[in-house]
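Deliverable D5.2: sample structural annotation.
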Amino acid sequence: MTDLTKLTLEAALGGMAKGEFSSVELTDAHIKACEAGGKLNAFITDTHELAREQAAASDARRVSLKKSGGEAGLLEGAPIGVKDLFCTEGVKTCAASKILGEFTPTYESTVTANMKADGMVMLGKLNLDEFAMGSSNETSAYGPSINPWRKDKDLVPGGSSGGSAAAVAADLCLGATATDTGGSIRQPAAFTGTVGIKPTYGRCSRWGTVAFASSLDQAGPIAKTVKDAAILLESMAGYDAKDSTSLNIDVPKWSGACGQSVKGLRVGIPAEYTVDGMPAEIQALWDKGVAMMKDAGAEIVPISLPHTKYALPAYYVVAPAEASSNLARYDGMRYGLRVDGKDLNDTYDRTRTAGFGDEVRRRIMIGTYVLSAGYYDAYYLRAQKVRSRIVEDFQNAWNSCDVILTPTTPSAAFPVGHKFSDPVQMYLNDIFTVTTNLAGLPGISVPAGLSADGLPLGLQLIGKALDEETVFKAASALEAAAGFTAKPEAWWA
């Protein structure tokens, strides 16, 4: 039998449908892989016994559905990892922070509830940057996840969804949930040779997902292939009355767009994404991507997104401002960590000091400052005006193109600790990704080549709001042309 952990999600679902193997067999294989992959620190909490129970229940459902002529769920019997930002009923959810302690929700996030209804088997809760604040997975209170690529030097898997990306790249799970506030799905996907998509803002419910920056956060999947990502997103997405920002629209069958021709598709190439100091290999990869899309029949169109240079500064005003508001609820009074002080204010102070890591405290302080009297107009209001200009840039670009092609990251994965002491250098990792969050657009990262050091590099495709179908079609064509099949050596096993 083929090594079950090497299968794509699509192949695994097909194999179970044909009776070639059961969900129990598939799940056991992935549990063994997870146990062998402890050095990667991809999981904060494992749910292996629960996974075995869910797998057995899935196999029983398949037998019943076969007898009744019913259809299996989109993810029936598939072992999946869940980023520990999604609340899961009866399973510890801590957002990689000390302040939530042993918090165990009595409710389920809408995204994971959708996936469980479709037959998902949950292997465990995946590591991340604390409260999703970071670009390397080094701010986690549970230690950093390690990129499966290269064993002679520990590399970051990207962030904040580093555990999700590392687990998928190392074949510990068939796919994983993730969240993206400024690039936290796409950047780790690029660093690990996986596929990651952030859908249009509002496609996936935010209810039951621990908030970072509410106007920017969006759930999405990290997967082995473009089609796998489409299948996962079909399950994750959908209207939710409990989320006021959820879009009340149908979820298309995006997997059907994969493999379609891109002949005549207009691919925009923004001049502003050629930034100072960008490594030659990133420019070369971008040029290669342009050539591949052209060879596939697409029309290449030069475009301008003139306010791109202001996106990163605007993001690092808006995101911390929203974070300072969202994280005000963690005060030790109702749940999570509590450090008693001499009075109420001292208890607040001691609890938050002990519970939050350096990066979270830094962003809370920045956010509180830019929202304070005397600075609101100078910083937050101005950042929101810049955001409106960025939205206008994209709206103007859509007059001449259907999708936009850019690099995903300004470099390949870097060593653990290499940028940790320099927040500005760390923030620059998001330079190509934050615009889509500010504009609420869908964006996907596809592995397209290797660096000079043999590390994965990704290309990003950005689409019109609600036009994930075109994004998946273009991404599938790019994936086929790139033919990326490289895998890390299993040094951790």
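Annotation notes: The first strand starts at residue 43 and ends at 46. The first helix runs from residue 9 to 17.
The annotation will be released with the project's public dataset once the embargo ends.
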